[in-house]
From TrEMBL:
Coiled coil: none annotated. Residues 33-52 bind DNA. The keyword Signal does not apply. Keywords: DNA-binding. One of its GO terms (molecular function) is DNA binding. This is TetR/AcrR family transcriptional regulator. The keyword Metal-binding does not apply. It holds the Pfam family TetR_N. It comes from the Bacteria.
Length: 198
């Protein structure tokens, strides 16, 4: 009989969140349960209860994990874009991928539908922190201190909507699948051009 490697609480939590993220991407938010995650990482249901308290707690921790991971990547892309090393489209693709391929859109809608709205707080607060990091000094260019806030709101809403119904809607309208991404990038470029010309 082989013994399992003893993990620190932090390692165990990280392992569980990675498994939850994989389940979310592979089979959807309804499969992110304590039992499924425990089975995937070879731990017990009680072990995960100890770390997360409930399935709702696990989903909230997963939302926070996803938001932080995605926002860190977006911050790097924004800084690269400002330095002339990246484009608005790259920032848009990161946001859209987070909600679509990374499962944040499905997780968001699942939490809303199951009445677990407080689990969205980590996503919302992490996006707020992202904006706070990007926004300082932005008002100096145009006098509009809410410029980055407005662009972020538009981008997140477009990315979320596209993740949920973008494919079906684009198909029904006879448009290419990435039309929403193109529109989001064009809007962001126009906003940035207007903002920096003032």
């Amino acid at each position: 009989m082989t013994s399992r490697k003893r993990l620190t609480p932090e390692e165990s939590r990280k392992s569980a969140l990675q498994a939850a993220r994989a389940l979310l991407i592979e089979t959807g938010p309804q499969s992110v349960t304590l039992k499924a995650v425990a089975s995937r990482i070879g731990r017990t249901h009680a072990n995960l209860l100890h770390h997360f308290g409930s399935a709702s707690g696990l989903q909230k921790a997963l939302a926070e994990h996803l938001a932080k991971t995605v926002c860190e990547t977006i911050i790097e892309a924004v800084h690269a874009s400002r330095a002339g090393l990246g484009s608005a489209r790259e920032v848009v693709d990161l946001a859209f991928d987070a909600f679509d391929r990374e499962g944040a859109g499905a997780l968001t809608s699942w939490m809303l539908l199951t009445g677990n709205e407080d689990a969205l707080n980590p996503i919302i607060s992490t996006i707020h922190e992202l904006v706070d990091e990007i926004a300082p000094g932005e008002a100096d260019h145009s006098g509009d201190e809410m410029h980055v806030h407005k662009d972020t709101l538009s981008l997140v809403l477009l990315a979320l909507g596209d993740a949920l119904i973008g494919g079906a809607l684009a198909k029904s309208l006879g448009l290419p699948r990435d039309t929403a991404r193109e529109r989001a990038a064009a809007n962001l470029e126009a906003s940035m051009a207007q903002h920096y010309q003032r």
